[in-house]
Amino acid sequence: EAQVTQNPRYLITVTGKKLTVTCSQNMNHEYMSWYRQDPGLGLRQIYYSMNVEVTDKGDVPEGYKVSRKEKRNFPLILESPSPNQTSLYFCASSLYGGATEAFFGQGTRLTVV
Amino acid sequence: QKEVEQDPGPLSVPEGAIVSLNCTYSNSAFQYFMWYRQYSRKGPELLMYTYSSGNKEDGRFTAQVDKSSKYISLFIRDSQPSDSATYLCAMSGGNNRLAFGKGNQVVVIP
User: Fold this and answer.
1) Residue A91: closest CA among chain B residues belongs to which residue?
2) Residue-wise pLDDT tens for chain A (113 aa)?
3) Is A45 on the interface with B (CB under 8 A)?
4) Closest-CA distance of chain A to residue B11, Å
5) Disulfide check for A36: which of A26, A87, B25, B57 has CB 3.0–4.6 Å away?
């Protein structure tokens, strides 16, 4: 089954404690991206990757890092989380990027206290 | 002016009614237009995809694009309780960006 898998689904952490949210896709897609979804603001792109070792900033990259060492994996790293990063995070993958269908993961609800 | 405007107000309709949703955009480079459906506690899933002006039908769903007015719409005919979800418009200029509207929460009342 084609899918994008995120882990964990729920996470509560404290300010400043580094964390990583993993994302894996099994569709051999080149393009992967991370979004955050906040009430009243919708989905906003954090980072995207066009292929292995190729990443770029989206609309709201501050406070986040990503890496793409393998085609299937695209982890999101918060080096020093802050309360304003409390949000619902989605990973997505697509064959070629914004012009093609994006498959989304189930989401990770992160709370930073 | 935001790139994509979607009035996020919730919409409640009786079962069987037509649901009408729309988005406007300001970026003339947008060529690809999508509607995603998002159920509670789930990730968005693609519902409709089009890249030309005009109408595209898929079962009870019709996507409409008017590039001259920078306006897109989604119509759901014979709405069902299972259509209750948040609907997000999304647009792309063919590059790596996908710009989303804020989403409309739709509730279909049996």
Assistant:
1) B43
2) 889 999 999 999 999 999 999 999 999 999 999 999 998 888 999 999 999 999 999 999 999 999 999 999 999 999 999 999 999 999 999 987 776 788 999 999 999 99
3) yes
4) 15
5) A87
